[in-house]
Amino acid sequence: MAKYSEVGEQVRRMMLGVTPLVEPLSIDEAFLDLTGVVADLRGGAGAAGRLKDRIRSEQRLTASVGVAPTKFLAKVASDLEKPDGLVVFPLEDVPKRLWPLPVERLWGVGPKSAARLHALGLRRIEDLVRAGEARLAAALGPGAAQHLLSLARGDDPRPVVPERESKSISGERTFAVDLRDPDAIQAELLERSDGVARELRREGLAA
Q1: What is the pTM of this model?
Q2: Catalytically active residues, by annotation
Q3: How far apart are CA 37 and CA 59, in angstroms?
Q4: CB–CB of 15/27 below 8 Å?
Q5: pLDDT 10s digit of each residue in the chain, 207 long?
Q6: What's the CA gap between 84 and 56, in Å, rounded?
Q7: Distances in Å between the alpha carbon of 148 and those of 22, 131, 201?
C-alpha cells in the first residue's frame, strides 16, 4: 500500500504539471480542468497523450484517459477503452456513444433505482431519454428525474474542484482478478486498514 500511495502521489504531481486544477477522485484517479491550457478537445487529447506517455516512461504504467467537455462524459470516456485508452467524447457523440450504455452508468443510479427503472422496462440510457421526465419523476422523484436526464444529455455543470474538505478517509485497490482465497482477502484487508490508520494518524484523528 505504501508503494501504491507513493506512485499515486508521483502521478498526481505529473497531473499538476499539466494544470493546477486537479480534483482527486481516488489515489489513482482524478479530474483535470484544461480550460485555458488547451483550445479545444483536440488540444486536450494531445495533452492527455503526453501525460500518458510520461506515466508510461517514468512509472512503467498504463493510464486510461477520457477527454470531454464535462466531468461526467470524461469519466464515461475514461472507462470505455481500459486499461490503456485515450477517448475523446464530444457532446455530439452523446446519442451514439452514451445512450446505448446501461442506466447504471449514470451517476446516481444505484441498485435500488436501477431495479425501479428495470421494472419499467428502462435498461439503457436511451430508454430514459425516450421515457421523458414525467415518467421518470413518477418512479424516482422529480429531482432524480431531472438529474438523470441532464446527465443523459451530457449536461454536467459541476466544475473541477482542486481542494475540498475531507469528509472521510478510506483505502482502496482495484484487482485485475477477484480474490477468493480467505487468507489473501484477510491480508489485503489488513493492508488497506493499515493505510487508513496511517492517514488517520497523519491527520491527528481517531476512529
Answers
A1: 0.77
A2: 29
A3: 24
A4: no
A5: 677 888 989 999 999 999 999 999 888 899 999 999 999 999 999 999 999 999 999 999 999 999 999 999 999 999 999 999 999 999 999 999 999 999 999 999 999 999 999 999 999 999 999 999 999 999 999 999 999 999 999 999 999 999 765 567 777 666 657 778 888 888 888 877 877 887 787 777 877
A6: 10
A7: 25, 12, 39
Helix (H, G, I), strand (E, B), or coil: what is residue 32?
Answer: strand
How far apart are the C-alpha atoms of 108 and 70, rounded to whole Å?
Answer: 16
Cα–Cα distance, 115 to 28 (Å, whole number): 30
> What is the CA 93 to chain-centroid distance, rounded?
19
d(CA 108, CA 125): 13
Q: Which amino acid is at 176?
A: A
Look-up: residue for cell 506517455? Answer: 53
Q: Which residues of 22-59 are buried (b: 16+ CB within 10 A; e: fewer)?
A: bbbeebbebbbbbeeebeebeebbebbeebbeebeeee
Indicate the residue type of 194: D
- Rounded CA-CA distance 116/120 in Å is 7
User: What are 171's three cell numbers?
Assistant: 483505502
CA 36, distance to chain mean position in Å, is 22
Residue for cell digits 482527486?
24
